[in-house]
Amino acid sequence: MAREQIVVKGIVLRGTDTRESDKILTVLTAAGKLRVIAKGARGRRSRVTAAAQLLAYSELTVSEKGEWYFLSEASTIALFEGVRQDIELLSLASYFAELVEAVTLEEMDSGSLLRLLLNALYALGNLKKPPEQVKAAFELKVMALTGFEPLADGCAVCGRPEPEDPVLDIVDGVVRCRRCSGGGQGLAMPLTPGALAALRYILYGDEKRLYSFRLGEKDLEKLSNAAEAYLHAMLERGFRTLDFYKSLHIPAIDQKE
Question: What pTM did the predictor assign?
Fold first, then answer.
């Protein structure tokens, strides 16, 4: 009896070569992650080779067997060539994929995360947004979508709407005035007023315009450092792909020295 086939749209978060010419894919769909076996995907004449690439967004025809799905047909929707042609952008996009895989379950409403990832890749490769800006916004929005949104509408201690000399407490997940930050125990990341405004824009603004803000170099540096530190504190883990990206990436501030 033939297995029932279903059609889904998804993006490849990870691909692993297996015996012969097959690949095992981790695919993010709006309904969560799928583990997909793409038989013959590494073969020269395979019709699913393009769709089995990392970060390929495609319409996939799959059939389920136990814990696995088997890929029978695929039609690519977007390959994000602008990202693939730049090693720095590709390494950053690979980090985005690893991060999303880490916070997504196999049966989970993941439509917002899928849109976030697709929009981030478009912002990098097509809109040519600054990579560090996209990275910071992506990290903070991932945290917000997965239940770790920091409280940023005012000082969490004194209630001041515009915190004085603001900091992001990366353990408690709140914005505070520096003088209200508990004595400075190394757990608070400094923010400029511009970085705080961007943080609020990312968390509370229209997700369709997530990357439509501009920051000066100092503001972006503070936002970027705070976003990465907060994510690491909340997830309590590092990312191999982020380490690789940082080994390639030379911030503009360093280039001037």
Answer: 0.91
- The neighbouring-strand residues paired with 29 are 10, 32
- Do the bridges between strand 32-38 and strand 166-169 make them parallel or antiparallel, or are there none, so unpaired? unpaired
Given a cut of 90, whether residue 66 has pLDDT beyond it is no
One-letter amino acid of 34: L
Sign of the four-CA dihedral 237, 212, 205, 115: negative
Nearest to residue 186, comparing CAs of 167, 165, 160, 202? 167
Structure tokens at 150: 């920091």
Task: Compute, in degrees rounded to 10, the torsion defined by CA atoms 108, 112, 114, 119.
Answer: -170
Task: For residue 22, name the pLDDT band (cuts at 50, 70, 90).
Answer: confident
d(CA 27, CA 243): 23
Tell me the pLDDT tens digit for each residue of 206-221: 988 999 999 999 999 9
Buried b (16+ CB within 10 A) or exposed e, 48-66: bbebbbbbbbbebbbeeee
Taking the alpha carbons at both ends of the chain, their separation in whole angstroms is 68
Task: Please tell me the distance from the alpha carbon of residue 257 to that of residue 254, in angstroms, as a whole number.
Answer: 5
CA dihedral 135, 213, 206, 234 (to 10 degrees): 30
